[in-house]
Amino acid sequence: MSREKILEVKDLTVSFNTYAGKVQAVRGNTFDLYKGEVLAIVGESGSGKSVTVKTLMGIAGNNAVIERGTAMYKGQDLTKNTEKDWEKIRGREIAMIFQDPLSSLNPIKKIGKQIAEIFTILHKMPKDEAKKRSLELMEAVGIPEPEKRYEQYPFNFSGGMRQRIVIAIALASNPTILICDEPTTALDVTIQAQVLHLIGDLQKNTGVSTIFITHDLGVVAHVADRIAVMYAGKIVEYGTAEDIFYNPQHPYTWSLMASMPDTDLSSEEELYSLQGTPPNMLHPPEGDAFAERNQWALKIDFEEDPPMFKVSDTHYASTWLLHPNAPKVDRPALLDRRIANSMKRKEARANG
After folding, report:
1. What is the structure's pLDDT at 263?
2. Which residues neighbour 89 within 8 Å (Cβ) at sequence distance 6 or greater?
3. What angle do CA 94, 25, 331 make, to 5 degrees?
4. pTM: predicted TM-score of the whole model, two decimal places
5. For 141-187, how does the pLDDT look when each residue is reduced to its tens digit (9 = 90+)?
6. CA–CA distances in Å: residue 45 to residues 62, 185, 233, 240, 299
7. What element of type H or E holds 134?
8. Which residue in 76, 272, 300, 319 could disulfide with 258, CB within 3.0 to 4.6 Å?
9. Are 186 and 100 spatial neighbours (Cβ–Cβ below 8 Å)?
C-alpha cells in the first residue's frame, strides 16, 4: 500500500553569505516526509539540521541563499515562496517547536492569550470559543489547573511546562507538518522523557507529519519511524529506525551510536568518543567530509565524495565501505554488543 507523500525535498543546497565568505550549510539533501510519520534528522551541532528545517519554514535568515533544489508541498515549491506566500503557510499548515521555550513566548503576555490568539487570528473564532479551545489544548498537553494557568505569565512556569505551552501553540493551528527543533535540549532527563512521550502521543492522535531535529540518537529511539543522519551539511545515511539502530552502515552513524551512554557498559570499559571536530564549511574538504575523523577511511575518501549506496529498499548510506571492492571492516565492538543487546530486549518485549 503506497503512503501519501506530504513533503518532497530534492537536492536542497543552502549557503550563507558572511563577512568571511560563503558558508556551505546544506549540501544537496534529498528526503521525503509521509503522512502521519515521524522523520528524525540527527547530527552534531553545526551539521545543517536546523538550517534545513528553517529553510522549509522560510526563516533561515536574510543572508541565507538557496543555491538549488526544491521542496514540494501540495504542488507548491517552498523554496520559491515570497513572504506573502509564507504568511498563508507558516504557523498555519507548517508549525514549529523551538528548543528554547522561553524565547518562543512573549514574557509580558498571559499564556492563555498567547494560545487563544491562534484561534482568534487564524481561525477567526469568537473569544469565548477560543478560550474554551485553548483550555482544552492546555489540558491535552498536560498543564494542570488550566483555568488558573490560563491567566499566568511564562515566568510562572517551569521549563518543561513552558515547552508544553509552546507545543499547544504549535498544535492550535492544526498543522499538516510539525517541526520539532531539539525541543528537549534545555530540559532535564525526566522532563525530556515526559515531553517526548507527549509529542509521540499527540502525533499518533492527530496524525500530523513530524520532522524531529536532534543531536542525540537516543532521544528519537522510540519516537522516529525513519531517521536521516547528517554530517557537514549532507545526509550520509537514512532508513527506517530499525535500519539505523540494528544495521547502521556509515562510520559516522557507528560513532554516534557507540557514543551514547549505556547501562550495559562495564566499569572497566570507556565510553566511545568521536575524535576531532567537524570541518570548516567555509572551505569543505575534498572527498568525504568525514574522512579526517574516520578511523576506517580509505584512500578514495580523501579524493572523492561517495555516492549514496543502496543497502535495501528502505536503507541508503553514503560511504565507500559499501563499494563492492572495499575491504571488510569491523565496527566498534561496543556498538556490536549494544546492537545485540537491543535486539535481545526487542525479542523479549515481543514475546511478552
Report:
1. 63
2. 73, 78, 81
3. 100
4. 0.92
5. 889 999 999 999 999 998 889 988 998 999 888 899 999 998 887 77
6. 21, 12, 11, 22, 27
7. helix 127-140
8. 272
9. yes
